[in-house]
Write a structure and sequence with these properties.
- It contains three helices and 14 strands.
- With 231 residues, the protein is α+β, with helices and mostly antiparallel strands.
- It has two domains: 124 residues, no CATH class; 106 residues.
- A hairpin with a 4-residue loop joins β12 and β13.
Length: 231
């Protein structure tokens, strides 16, 4: 998940920071794009921790097709992304729904000989956690990991009542993706292990009451999780 945060920072810099005094076309500028796609205003990032590899049977109906590939074609770091853009997928590449999940959460596409899972990161329409994470009734356990390069596991929580409580609090929590939480305080990764064998991970900042990206969990979530970890 630390990789996701780092890659997202690169994406934001690539989209929002210009090179002062440079012309619109900058052939010598190399932009390190994040592997993303954008549809319906939602930016989806390629997931690096899917639990298991996606198979053709995981793909649902065709959702959309890439309109424009940024890598190799865009040399202006201030260029804003648009619907249909992708970092590394060629124009015309089909993008599919993922069976069992809302397309506002997960999409997938063939890339470099495998199926790549893309998960929603930035959604301007998201009001609550459920608008970003379609995991209600699908979580079998939650693995809590310290968010460092070593990634030491703290615990894996599997009690059904506990999982139901935490997921319910998370999915009903309000979303504010404009908030800047900073880097102070403890950082964990919550990995939600799902019934189909896949998983989805999010950074958790207990001091900021935030689950990435921008889900502002209540006191009850923080205290319930802390008590479970203490046991």
């Amino acid at each position: 998940m630390a990789k996701r945060a780092l890659l997202l920072a690169v994406l934001v810099a690539s989209m929002a920071v210009g090179f002062g005094g440079c012309s619109l076309f900058q052939p010598n500028v190399v932009i390190d794009w994040v592997n993303f796609v954008r549809f319906g205003g939602i930016t989806y990032l390629a997931s690096f921790d899917t639990g298991r590899a996606l198979q053709p049977a995981d793909l649902g109906a065709r959702f959309a097709a890439v309109r424009f590939r940024l890598d190799g074609n865009v040399h202006d770091a201030s260029r804003q992304t648009e619907d249909g853009d992708a970092a590394y997928l060629d124009a015309g590449t089909p993008v599919y729904r993922v069976n069992g999940y809302a397309p506002t959460f997960r999409l997938a596409a063939h890339q470099d000989g495998r199926i790549v899972l893309f998960e929603a990161d930035t959604n301007p329409h998201a009001k609550i956690g459920a608008d970003l994470l379609d995991i209600s009734g699908k979580v079998q356990s939650i693995t809590v990991t310290v968010d460092t390069s070593g990634g030491a596991s703290v615990a894996t929580l599997a009690d059904t009542h506990l999982i139901t409580t935490l997921v319910s609090l998370l999915l009903s929590a309000p979303v504010d993706q404009s908030r800047q939480s900073g880097d102070s305080g403890a950082r964990y990764v919550l990995t939600f292990n799902l019934a189909d064998g896949t998983q989805t991970s999010r950074v958790y900042l207990p001091d900021a009451h935030e689950v990435g990206r921008g889900i502002l969990v209540p006191d009850a979530f923080v205290s319930t999780l802390a008590a479970a970890l203490a046991r």
